[in-house]
């Protein structure tokens, strides 16, 4: 009996060991498969992020390590009393406040129109998405020659409607122009995502509402809009994160070929940060500005997430959608 | 749908008219800058800078396109762009699909926690990591090399990991069960069953990454010097006439840009369905 129980125990043990060694092998395989990403995540994200955070507490100028000094939170204190930083932050807020709602509204409207099952909607979808395919450099050139006051097509159209009128698109109204450029390049992708969301709404729901006597407006307000809120939510988050980071378009759109300082109208926060780092070599101050931006984006994102339960509807788990 | 039905009410007709009216108006507004851009690329410079404007060139100046590729080392910079775009695409597809496979099929307890890190990476603003990365690479004296691209691609992309994971999750289990019975290990299953069955995602990831690197202006501006930089950086500076005091020429610059965007526009028309599907799954902009 002792022997048998020993065998039983032993058997159990080898069984367990076999099992655990299988689990262990599985785990090794798992980590082997994801190892490039894990190494990259640590080496290219975590370490630079931490080093960036450390840099923001120093006077680092990009090269000189001999005179590197720890300045505690001086760079942050400076950022909060820097009138230029405040000005550029204000312009950035204005830019996001202009661009984001316009983008959400217009791309949603286009998606609604295209969702009606009209003939030729494929052609329209292709044409609307086409500007999104263009890289920033080509987009900016296209708009520079379109908006130019001396030989642009838009200047000619404006002059034809209001003879003698000159609109300073790329100087005084540069922020508005950037909104146009950005909408032009972004409507396509926004529309495609909304369209996919609209097509995920079960037809039966809308039809059932119609049978119950709801008119088109009511169906739209009580069925379509609530069911599309997860997509609006997603787009809002992505637009928020992207909008605050705007850098390349403003740098290219209004800069001459030598100067990198855009007109005041389009002096966005990231452009200011970029200049602090790469033009004035103020790496410490620049990374502090960067971390402030990160904190702002993160808190806004979390804020939107927190409001989610008041307006985003997840009740209907559409088949295959989630 | 109801366009042909006979008893169409007036209201329906009106709605249809308004819909098409809006669609056509939006098309005109969106295409107007493109139209001007394309026309400029075949104008004589004197026609472009004239006021009142001339919409159409008297004679299309196709020679602008020849000038665009001969007035500066176009081929060299195009090769740099092409090399970076292709190499990073291949590397990032390999590493991202490997990780995507692990997240879809190898079940370990901490899998979901790790996957949440990937999702979190999707919402970390890219610029916040880009500049500290530059500081590190600069200290390692890796600026002015292609290593930042290669290393970045080797670590995979959270977008593509997400995309591959979604796609692999949808592959029926029976396929791999049979292979497992035959004694195939996870790597063979990945390599011989999953990858060959996911050509659409591979194509989508390739196109996104290729376009992203080919069109990128910021990274090459930060890392590369004039000689080894990409086409995007050179075209952002504009094309100058080397025979006439390096005067900046708009029309030739636009011709250069048309050639620059051609690969993207062509692949978009060829693979539109996959690209739009990719935009939807990852929220990525092409």
Concise account of the structure shown:
The complex is a heterodimer of chains A (322) and B (286). Chain A is mainly α and 322 residues long. Helices cover 74% and strands 0% of the residues of chain A.
Explain this structure.
The complex is a heterodimer of chains A (322) and B (286). Chain A is mainly alpha-helical. Chain A is built from 12 helices and no strands. Chain A has helices at 2-55, 74-81, 83-114, 121-133, 136-147, 153-161, 174-199, 203-211, 216-244, 248-254, 269-279, 283-311. In chain A, helix 8 packs antiparallel against helix 9 (216-244) and helix 11 (269-279) runs antiparallel to helix 12. In chain A, 36% of the residues are buried. Chain B has 286 residues and is an all-alpha fold. Chain B folds into 2 domains: 10-63, no CATH class; 66-282, Orthogonal Bundle (MetI-like fold), CATH 1.10.3720.10. Chain B has helices spanning 10-40, 45-48, 63-70, 74-105, 111-123, 126-139, 147-154, 158-169, 173-181, 186-194, 199-215, 218-223, 231-237, 250-270, 272-282; strands spanning 240-241, 247-248. In chain B, strand 1 and strand 2 (247-248) form a beta hairpin. At the A-B interface, helix 1, helix 3, helix 4, helix 5 and helix 6 of A face helix 1, helix 4, helix 5, helix 6 and helix 7 of B.
Distance N to C terminus of chain B: 31 Å
- Total strands of chain A: 0
Number of strands of chain B: 2
CATH superfamily membership of chain A: MetI-like
Assign the CATH architecture of chain A: Orthogonal Bundle
The amount of beta strand of chain A, in percent, is: under 5%
Q: What is the helix tally of chain B?
A: 15
Structural class, from helix and strand content of chain B? Answer: mainly alpha
Order of helices and strands of chain B: HHHHHHHHHHHHHEEHH
The first-level CATH class name of chain A = Mainly Alpha
User: What helical percentage do the residues of chain A reach?
Assistant: over 70%
Q: Tally the helices of chain A: what do you get?
A: 12
Average of pLDDT of chain A: 86
Rg over alpha carbons of chain B: 24 Å
């Amino acid at each position: 009996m002792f022997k048998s129980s020993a065998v039983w125990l032993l058997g159990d043990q080898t069984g367990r060991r076999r099992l655990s060694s299988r689990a262990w092998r599985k785990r090794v395989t798992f980590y082997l498969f994801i190892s490039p990403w894990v190494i990259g995540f640590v080496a290219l994200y975590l370490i630079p992020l931490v080093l960036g955070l450390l840099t923001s507490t120093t006077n680092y100028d990009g090269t000189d390590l001999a005179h590197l000094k720890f300045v505690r939170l001086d760079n942050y204190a400076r950022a909060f009393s820097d009138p230029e930083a405040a000005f550029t932050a204000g312009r950035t807020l204005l830019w996001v406040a202009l661009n984001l709602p316009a983008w959400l509204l217009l791309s949603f409207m286009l998606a609604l129109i295209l969702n009606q099952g009209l003939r030729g909607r494929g052609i329209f979808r292709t044409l609307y998405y086409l500007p999104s395919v263009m890289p920033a450099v080509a987009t900016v050139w296209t708009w520079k020659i379109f908006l130019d006051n001396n030989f642009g097509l838009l200047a000619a159209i404006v002059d034809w409607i209001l003879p003698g009128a000159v609109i300073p698109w790329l100087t005084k109204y540069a922020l508005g122009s950037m909104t146009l450029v950005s909408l032009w390049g972004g409507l396509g992708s926004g529309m495609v995502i909304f369209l996919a969301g609209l097509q995920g709404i079960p037809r039966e729901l809308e039809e059932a509402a119609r049978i119950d006597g709801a008119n088109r407006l009511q169906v739209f307000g009580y069925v379509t809009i609530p069911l599309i809120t997860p997509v609006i939510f997603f787009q809002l988050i992505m637009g928020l994160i992207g909008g605050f980071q705007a850098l390349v378009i403003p740098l290219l759109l209004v800069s001459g070929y030598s100067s990198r300082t855009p007109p005041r109208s389009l002096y966005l926060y990231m452009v200011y940060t970029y200049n602090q780092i790469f033009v004035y070599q103020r790496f410490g101050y620049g990374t502090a500005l960067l971390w402030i931006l990160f904190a702002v984006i993160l808190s806004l994102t979390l804020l939107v997430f927190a409001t989610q339960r008041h307006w985003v509807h997840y009740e209907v788990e559409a088949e295959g959608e989630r | 749908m109801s366009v042909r039905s006979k008893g169409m009410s007036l209201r329906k007709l009106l709605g249809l008219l308004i819909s098409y009216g809006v669609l056509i108006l939006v098309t005109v507004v969106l295409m107007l800058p493109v139209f001007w851009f394309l026309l400029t690329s075949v104008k004589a410079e004197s026609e472009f800078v004239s006021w009142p404007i001339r919409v159409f060139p008297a004679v299309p100046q196709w020679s602008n396109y020849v000038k665009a590729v001969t007035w500066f080392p176009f081929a060299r910079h195009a090769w740099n762009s092409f090399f970076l775009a292709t190499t990073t695409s291949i590397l990032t597809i390999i590493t991202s699909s490997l990780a995507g496979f692990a997240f879809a099929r190898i079940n370990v307890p901490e899998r979901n926690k790790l996957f949440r890190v990937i999702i979190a990476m999707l919402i970390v603003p890219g610029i916040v990591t880009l500049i500290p990365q530059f500081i590190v690479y600069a200290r390692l004296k890796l600026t002015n090399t292609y290593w930042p691209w290669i290393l970045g691609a080797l670590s995979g992309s959270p977008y593509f990991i997400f995309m591959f994971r979604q796609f692999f999750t949808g592959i029926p289990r029976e396929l791999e069960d049979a292979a497992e019975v035959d004694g195939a290990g996870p790597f063979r299953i990945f390599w011989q069953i999953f990858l060959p069955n996911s050509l659409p995602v591979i194509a989508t990831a390739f196109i996104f990454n290729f376009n992203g690197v080919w069109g990128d202006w910021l990274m090459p501006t930060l890392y590369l010097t004039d000689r080894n930089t990409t086409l995007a950086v050179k075209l952002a500076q504009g094309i100058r006439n080397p025979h006439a005091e390096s005067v900046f020429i708009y029309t030739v610059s636009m011709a250069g840009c048309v050639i620059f965007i051609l690969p993207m526009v062509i692949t978009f028309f060829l693979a539109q369905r996959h690209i739009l599907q990719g935009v939807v799954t990852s929220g990525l902009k092409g």
